[in-house]
Amino acid sequence: MIIATLLGMTSYQPAATSRISPVKLAVAGTLTVVLSVALIVGGGLLVAFVPAAEPVAMVTGLLGRVLVVAGVVLVVLGAVRRFDRR
């Protein structure tokens, strides 16, 4: 049943090429990681000098970690597009 469905599938047109170059993706990812490190370190320094600012530091640390993941995804996407052989 599944194989019959797969054999009967129609072919789709390939997706249009993106305007964002792989180099721009890699640069955006790198800058995102740098910003995230600044947020994480800045939040740590904020707690060191102003202990009452711990909730703010927790939020900046969380945002920094989310940005690290986003930056890594952008860098990997740029690398995949750069070395794609299609």
Features of this protein?
single chain, mainly alpha
In short:
With 86 residues, the protein is an all-alpha fold. Helix content is 73%, strand content 0%. Helix 2 runs antiparallel to helix 3.
What does this structure look like?
The protein is mainly alpha-helical and 86 residues long. The protein has one domain. 73% of the residues lie in helices and 0% in strands. It is built from three helices and no strands. The protein has helices at residues 2-7, 22-49, 54-82. Helix 2 runs antiparallel to helix 3. The radius of gyration is 21 Å and the shape is elongated. The protein starts with a helix and ends with a helix. The model has no long low-confidence stretch (mean pLDDT 85). The chain crosses the membrane at residues 25-50, 56-80. Keywords: Membrane, Transmembrane, Transmembrane helix.
SSE map:
Blueprint: H1 2-7, H2 22-49, H3 54-82
Helix pairs in contact: 2-3
For the report, how would you describe the main beta sheet?
A: none
Helix content: over 70%
- Kindly provide the radius of gyration, computed on alpha-carbon positions and rounded to a whole number of angstroms: 21 Å
Q: How confident overall, as mean pLDDT?
A: 85
Q: What share of residues are in beta strands?
A: under 5%
Spans of at least 5 consecutive residues with low confidence: none
Question: Total domains, how many?
Answer: 1
Total number of strands: 0
Counted by DSSP, the helix tally is 3
Structural class: mainly alpha
Return the string of H and E elements: HHH
Q: In whole angstroms, how far apart are the ends?
A: 31 Å
What characteristic shape results from the CA principal axes?
elongated
Transmembrane segments: 25-50, 56-80
Keywords: Membrane, Transmembrane, Transmembrane helix
